[in-house]
Design brief:
The chain is of the alpha/beta class. It is 40% helix and 21% strand.
């Protein structure tokens, strides 16, 4: 089945460049040139993924993302932010809005296609049949329902944050390098920027509250999950 991508950008040259490379990769492509049109198109077409520029006329990309994630019809559609803003604060804002990935202009069309394919693969990954929830004291990670609960309260994690926590928590105490996490969680090769791992870990720690300290930085190597005071999952 052909998957559909909605590209939202007010620069026609960029839209056509992305359209060409996505079509070459076998995707069906729709486009929108402003924020309001993007919302209407997303609700009507229900694309498999949205490539969304932050700097849009009529309605800013950040507001578009917020409204998409509030709408029951569109909240599950993964979003890749595409923008000229490259500072960490801008990436964090994008992830706070529910973006699954972040690509900074100028960008490689080939890398963008690879990132789109990786996000779609993650969305299509099903938990192993009969897989039991991981339980570490007050933290419950349930692959079957794709949910995380802390002290009985469900946390609002993005798909990528969930995958990252799940990967780390399945092997408590094991150290994962950033390249390993890029490969296992994002589906990228070693030649892709690794700072996105750090940004996601930062956001995930914040959402986990006190349990965020269980995701430990191993200087010069990467990250590990060590739930202090709790052993292996039940």
């Amino acid at each position: 089945m052909v998957q559909t991508i909605l590209v939202v950008d007010d620069e026609r040259d960029i839209v056509e460049l992305i359209r060409y490379h996505l079509a070459q990769a076998g995707f069906r492509v729709h486009s929108a040139g402003d924020g309001r049109q993007a919302l209407e198109m997303a609700r009507r077409v229900r694309p498999d993924l949205i490539v969304l520029d932050l700097m849009l006329p009529v309605l800013p990309g950040a507001e578009v993302a917020r409204l998409l994630k509030q709408d029951e019809k569109t909240r599950s559609i993964p979003i890749i932010m595409l923008t000229a803003k490259g500072e960490e604060v801008d990436r964090v804002v994008g992830f706070e809005l529910g973006a699954d990935d972040y690509v900074v202009k100028p960008f490689s069309p080939r890398e963008l296609v690879l990132r789109i394919q990786a996000v779609l693969r993650r969305e299509g990954t099903k938990p192993e049949e009969g897989e039991r929830p991981l339980v570490y004291g007050p933290l419950v990670i349930d692959a079957a329902s794709h949910s995380v609960r802390l002290k009985g309260k469900e946390l609002d994690l993005t798909t990528t944050e969930f995958k990252l926590l799940q990967r780390l928590s399945r092997r408590p105490g094991r150290v994962f390098s950033r390249d390993q996490l890029l490969h296992d969680v994002w589906g990228y090769g070693d030649d892709v920027e690794t700072r996105t791992v750090d940004t996601h870990v930062k956001r995930l720690r914040a959402k986990l509250g006190a349990a965020g300290d269980w995701i430990q930085t191993v200087r010069g190597v990467g990250y590990r999950f060590r739930p202090e005071g709790f052993g292996s999952p039940d």
